[in-house]
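Please predict the structure of the following assembly.
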Amino acid sequence: MLRHALGKTFRFLGYTVQYGCIAHCAFEYLGGIVVCSGPSMEPTIQNSDIVFSENLSRHFYCIRKGDIVIVKSPNDPKSNICKRVIGLEGDKVCTSNPSDFLKSHSYVPKGHVWLEGDNLRNSTDSRCYGPVPYGLIRGRICLKIWPLNDFGFLDQKMLDKYLSLASEQFVICPFPFNAVA
Amino acid sequence: MAQAQGLGKRYIKAFFKGFFVAVPVTVTFLDRVACVARVEGASMQPSLNPGGRQASDVVLLNHWSIRNYDVQRGDIVSLVNSLYISRSPRNPEQKIIKRVIALEGDIIKTIGYKKKYVKVPHGHIWVEGDHHGHSFDSNAFGPVSLGLLHARATHILWPPQRWQKLEPMLPPERKPLRREQE
């Protein structure tokens, strides 16, 4: 009786370990579902939206300008933040506020990216904590799942939003903000 | 003939079953628990690689012990090297192995950094190689975000005459000027 129960327990543990490992490999190397909270990416991603992020781009170094990425927070490694990539290494980015009279620019160092939220007024991003190392990027958001009325791939939405943002920036910032990809 | 085919099918089935168990478990183990790595370079001499290129040390990297980002001053850790080097498929992510000198909130005196005294920001650490002057470390690129922490090097596994447990050892001249937690 005891041997039967012990055998069953070990089999159960074995399956748990096996499926846990498969889940880890899937999240780490393929992608996963993410719940976003916070107002910093409005209107592209609202509070409590559910999105799908794919992790292949990070491993193949295909993160492009204009992508929305999930990144480990530079100041708190246990939490993740969701922002848009505004500049890759070597790009010139505007580091001053739109309301400042004198604009300041800097170049994104090698191995780093410059992140900004779409909701510029209510977003702590690279304008506060500086360029973020590429190694902190977890994945790229490609698909919005919930709410259902806003279901869809973010690629086209991203490009439209990015183009409208870039043109706004161009008006406020006299120097060319960065080349639109 | 039919029996041989049945046997072949069974082998294929057993192979795939084994494959789908062994590969995820191994990959998860190497990512989350521990892995082994060869140390290259002279930046951690004399603690690691005292023999130079002829005899590279092989260390055990422990991921499990840093799952909560719990490091002490003096630990030897490996970090994802995303710093000041272009990432590309030809130039994949390498890990750098250095010693933790200061934790968040500490104020330390730097060696050759752009600022003479640095207060390590929240969520960051300051790492240095033991071989000052031959080390690409925080004195070059500044404080490192804890999110880039990869593993802690706990033991030297090879060569056998250098088998040892790596203890956290902070050189006394590199102690922080003011610690956050006393």
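Residues 87 and 114 of chain A are 5 Å apart (CA to CA). Helices of chain A lie at 2-29, 56-59, 126-129, 154-172.
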